[in-house]
Prior knowledge:
The protein is α/β, with parallel strands linked by helices. Helices cover 47% and strands 15% of the residues. The chain has helices at 13-24, 31-40, 44-53, 61-72, 90-101, 117-126, 165-179, 181-188, 201-212, and strands spanning 2-7, 28-30, 81-84, 109-114, 127-130, 136-138, 157-158, 192-196. A five-stranded parallel sheet has the order 2-3-1-4-8, with helices on both faces. A hairpin with a 5-residue loop joins β5 (127-130) and β6. BIS(adenosine)-5'-pentaphosphate is lined by residues 7, 9-15, 31-32, 35, 52-53, 57-59, 64, 85-86, 88, 92, 123, 126-127, 136-138, 141-142, 162, 171, 197, 200-201, 204.
Amino acid sequence: MKIVMLGAPGAGKGTQAKMIAEKYTIPHISTGDIFRANIKNGTPLGAKAKEYMDKGLLVPDELVCDLVVDRIKQDDCKNGYILDGFPRTIPQAEALTDALSKINDKVEFAINVEVPDENIVNRMSGRRACVGCGATYHIKYNAPKVEDVCDTCGEKLILRDDDKPETVQKRLDVYHEQTQPLIDYYKNQGVLAEVDGTVDMDLVFDNIVKLLEA
Ligand code: AP5
């Protein structure tokens, strides 16, 4: 099962991708998580990515494409994977299509999680991310058992730097300009599946599973 998650920042791609990866035992590959891990570990890639991420901009395609194409060639991706946050531009989608076509393969499902902009800013201000394992919570919709402490690893939960309202608005603008065109790109490939992301997260998940198993 080769799946791409589409949707605005904060639409719930990461939340759903983790659940799908667990159900189908496939790796969850999040480019945002990869960059955040590099920032945390002080790598040159992390330093470069941070310049863009903190401004709400996309990291340049050349820093992303090879990284993902190399990752999906690894052994654990043989039975599929779920890409979360990649592709994010038409050149990234073309790089993925080209890499897959060389091995006679293609994306099977592009799942677009639809949430209107007005819901997004509210969601982002309530999101809390674990500094240890990267798990994501929401103070209202998916609260940790103990305030500001990760249920999984016990580390501290923080508001991501790029979740401040002014940066979220920039990310939404960038999304509409550069990432939304991917909806048509995958529609034209006949693999687009759309779900309402405004309902409860378990219901979003049930609806995705129905689409995957139809
Ligand atoms: P990335 O980490 O990918 O950020 P994003 O796409 O903006 O997505 P988010 O992680 O913010 O949101 P999400 O859709 O996963 O929502 P979540 O499940 O957390 O990328 C960060 C940055 O890295 C980018 O801005 C860019 O700079 C760079 N980058 C990454 N990939 C790149 C690429 N390919 N090319 C170039 N640059 C790249 O949910 C959000 C909140 O809502 C959570 O609190 C959650 O608990 C809650 N929630 C989820 N579902 C529901 C629901 N149904 N109801 C109520 N609350 C819900």
